[in-house]
What does this fold into?
Amino acid sequence: MSLILFAAVLFVSILVVPIGLPGLWMMIVAALVYDWLVPAASIGWVTLGIALGLTVLAEVLEFTLSAKYTRKYGGSRRAGWGAILGGIAGAIVGVPVPVIGSVIGAFAGAFVGALVLEYTRPEATGSTATRVATGALIGRVAAAAAKTSLGFVVAITLLVGAWT
It folds into this structure.
């Protein structure tokens, strides 16, 4: 019964990742609580370490993919930082809108942040800044997909660790 409850918590945690909530960190906390409350079915420190490493990797990817795509689409380093900071600010601003506010806010924030900071370059034109901002948006979408995918891997890793 406790394994089924643990699996349900992991599933809910995966569902909240795309909406900008810290679902992967919820999985780590749930695994620690499960390991503490159900000592007979210990997950193990190696499995927890692997899950923690994947979680950190997902966080790094989330913050760097938007900047990477911004630069891939011709943006400056400044526009890359605009995409990162805009994505964070947009996610925070979007929180009051239930369920999808933080996702839309993060996407819009990455676009606007890259656009605004690309426009601060003297040689920037409207079309290049828009192209760069589109790259930031694509990067933000790729980051959300990558983080959700790694969330599935973390959940499976923890479930296998709890099962054995």
